[in-house]
Fold Esterase.
Amino acid sequence: TECTNDAEVIFYTLNGGGHTWPGGGLLPGWLVGEISTDINASPELWSFFSNHPLPNFP
């Protein structure tokens, strides 16, 4: 992609994830659909944002 300032973009696709936060608390499948435990989104997001901090603004 042609991102501003050579920004990095990471895109994940989860099959069978339903409407849940990957790796979060489990809700009944009848309520939210299928549940995927293939990835835990919280540490993935923390890793991304800690490696890509916003620049300091005056």
Observations:
- The longest helix spans residues 41-51.
- The chain has a mean pLDDT of 82.
